Amino acid sequence: MVDASRWQDIKALFEAALERPASEREAFIQATPMDADAVAEVRSLLAHHDEVTGFLQQPAAAPSEAASAALVGQRLGAWQIVRALGSGGMGEVFEASRADGSYEGRAAVKLLKRGMDSVAVLQRFALERQALARLSHPHIARLLDAGASSEGLPYFVMEFVDGKPIHEAALGQPLEARLKLFLQLADAVAHAHRNLLVHRDLKPGNVLVDKEGQVKLLDFGIAKALDPLEHGDGSTTLGGVRPYTPQYASPEQVRGEPVSTATDIYSLGVLLYQMLTGARPTGRHATTPQEAGRSVLEEEPTRPSRLSESEALDPNWLVTRKRLAGDLDHILLMALEKSTSRRYATVDAMAADVHNFLQGRPISARAAAPLYVLAKFVRRNRWPVMAGAVGGLGLVTGLAATLLQGRVAAALGVLGLAGGLAMALIQAQKAAAARDRAQAHLQEARAIASDVMVRHADAVHYLPGGATLKALLLQNMIGHLDILAKQAGNDAAFAGELAMAYARLAHLQGDHLLLAQGHVSTADLNAQRSQPLFEAGKAAHSANPWYAIWWARAWRARANAARERKDLALALQGFQHMAAVIEDALRQHPHHGELLSELGSVHLGRGQLYNTWTLDDLGQPDAALQAFDQARTIYQGIVDSGQATAEDLHQLGTIAGACMMVCYDQGRSADALAHGEAALLSRQANLATHPDHVAYRNGLATEANNFSFVLLEGGQPARALVYAQMCSDNLLTLERVDPGHAGWRETRLRSSLQLARALTGVGRANEALPLLQTLCDPATVLPGGPWRVAWARLELALAHAALGHGGEAQAQARLALPVLQEAADSQPQDAHQVLQAQRCRQLLEPPASSRA
Asked: Residue 43, Cβ neighbours under 10 Å: how many?
């Protein structure tokens, strides 16, 4: 039996071979460096692929009476067949009862027919059993047992579910009840995706609702029992021709393309559409599977709220249709996008939008137009908003609304009203009562400013486009706080609040993920302005741990700005100041989770200063790994204490990713891959629970890109292609939701080099050519300068060579060689640069036959 740990590479080779014509597969797998046992397993998979992929996905048909009579009463391990439930092309389904006396139980058994009992299939049944054991969820029918009959035929034993298909169970129920049923299903599918398994056949017959109203997802993984285990990121399964249910299949399934988690998202969209309308989004008049499949590719889904009364089968359609218009229309149409890149990135993201609809919150499938966001806020907070119209809260609401609508001057006027009122009262009235009233207004304005600065600004921090709005809010708040601070005189508490406002703005301006590059110098200036104010307010805020956190972040902004200026010694001093502020606060608050997290970020920042790939560093990889280890210890301690936030988990992913690249530089390939896999798992888990978080999505894209590079350098192009595509898909999502941020396109452009290299590596150089030609185009401003352009030219030369374009390959190599050779000569310790120059020279060497 092939060891389960080796399925990752076997799977990658199998997928790559499937993409080639059958006549070319043998030569392709013989040309790989894999050992004979692995190649033999790939041959076995290819041999059985077309024969067995339909097992358990064929529609059930009534078995013959003779077959039923022959099998009823037969023992399958601890189970005994009671009656036949159905029969497909390759398997038969039976109800079974527990027969070993250990307990009473009822189950569904699917038994493989004769002719499918090859050794390779049996081996993969055993491995699939281990994979399915990972699924433990209240809304997934459990795999109870698996084995082989006395005749050697494999079988699976599943939890027996007595229920109705989900679309029938939803019929006639209130809209909220239907959506809650769907959320049970979405949670089950998301659980499976997190365990690296894709269902691939979500349809009403596989989703039942029992008498208690509990959703049960059936047959998960069974249809994959004849495929190798899914390792890696689990987002893509095998390509090739596969059976599917046309009415619920995704466009990529109909086209026979590789299947991914996006396929399940599309099928969930079809199911939810049917649950809410009683009809399918496309192919409602199709009479054959071919017509249904063609409709998936050619028809645009009808907007749900526009279905006529005759098309929708919902008995309360006129009422339901009004509820669908707007948010639910957008949710369904996004799930049903024909392009995978435009669908929801995860099932959790789709479920989050359904949750938001139920709670009256904005959804991500709609553009966050100011009036839309404000309307949602008002509906959720109807009474506070009404009360606030005559009180201080009304002032905050008015400010938020005017800012969101872009009327900055009007917003400043609202703020000026509070400040100006306070100033007028102080100057106009000398009496004690008037001064008291002025102080009350001053405190009210101060509270309003703080509320807008902290609560309203932070609420949009990581939403697409939210950083620009937050920067505007902070700049306006700082201007207003300056006025109020002068009125307050030598108020240490006010000085501290102003210091934190400056630090917040500096922290935001220094974050390239949120604001496009070009704000670092402004961030440094605002951080400098905050320092004397932090000193002045220290005594008044000594008991507030967040005061220390923002003070430390001001030092980080200064350290990052120094690094941008290539003053690495000054940057290191900034991290030392940062550590001193946090350690001083920890003496007063030794177990404060956010303080500990900030200390972890100090060590992480120092490690990245010692050694990193993307910026100038001190060239000290061992010191970097030591700092990363200190950071990991702190963050893991926070996790173990139960105080961890999503940001702490994000930082653990950042540490693992940083360790991957340092280990790669040191030639420790196995360690690099292990760190990379840990980083990706952390990133995927965090993004699944926070699908709208810009930094988490960018973090996943970054790790996927870096991991694909390490895999390519290790000679694993098929695996690398999965992660390079993952990087590209996530960056495209960021571009789509935040088109005003130029950095996403630049990052995608830079990372497309790894995607092109992977495509060339798996024999798809024709697809790599346009990507590489774009990178080498003089009109393209490629981040990384001349060396990266030369690298792209080398890869373009290699793609041409793979396609037999010898002359073009040599022409591109001649253009790339001077730059690559100069880089190799100037940094002979950099193995990557030396290797690039060597590969380029080899392209320019004459063939061995001509030399002879």
From this structure: 17
Q: Specify the residue for token string 């939008």.
A: 353
Structure tokens at 39: 């190649």
- Residues β-bridged to residue 145: 157
Are the C-beta atoms of 534 and 496 separated by less than 8 Å?
yes
Spatial separation of the C-alpha atoms in residues 675 and 665, rounded to whole Å: 13
| pTM greater than 0.85 (yes/no) | no
Residue 180 reports pLDDT greater than 80: yes
Beta strands in 311-396 (DSSP E): none
Backbone angles phi, psi at 666, to 5 degrees: -85, 0
Closest CA to 356 of 328, 334, 336: 328
Separation of CA 173 from chain center: 33
Q: Which of 13, 22, 388, 348 has the alpha carbon at shortest distance from 185?
A: 348
What amino acid positions are annotated as catalytic residues?
201
Mapped onto helix, strand or coil, the DSSP state of residue 428 is: helix
Amino acid of residue 534: F
CA distance 328 to 331: 5
* Buried-exposed string 588-601: b where 16+ CB fall within 10 A, e elsewhere: eeeebbbbbbbbbb
Concatenate the DSSP letters of all residues of 347-361 into one string: HHHHHHHHHHHHHT-
Distance between CA atoms of residues 506 and 529, nearest Å? 10
280 contacts: CB under 8 Å, gap ≥ 6: 247, 270, 273, 274
Burial class (CB in 10 A: 0-12, 13-18, 19+), 769: buried
Could you read off the pLDDT of 262-298 as tens digits, one per residue?
Answer: 889 999 999 999 999 988 899 888 777 777 878 888 8
Q: DSSP secondary-structure letter at 140?
A: B
Residue linked to tokens 């120092």: 606
CB atoms within 10 A of CB 266: 25
Q: Which residues of 784-796 are buried (b: 16+ CB within 10 A; e: fewer)?
A: eeeeebbbbbbbb
Handedness of CA 88, 219, 178, 85 (dihedral sign): positive
Cα angle value 741/746/752 (rounded, 5°): 135
Q: What share of the chain is helix, strand, coil (3-state, %, to 5)?
A: 65, 5, 30
Q: How far apart are CA 294 and CA 289, in angstroms?
A: 9
Count CB atoms within 10 A of the CB of residue 483.
18
**CB 656 within 8 Å of CB 679:** yes
Give the contacts of 427 (CB within 8 A, at least 6 positions apart).
none
Tell me the pLDDT tens digit for each residue of 745-789.
778 888 889 999 999 999 999 999 999 998 888 877 666 678 888
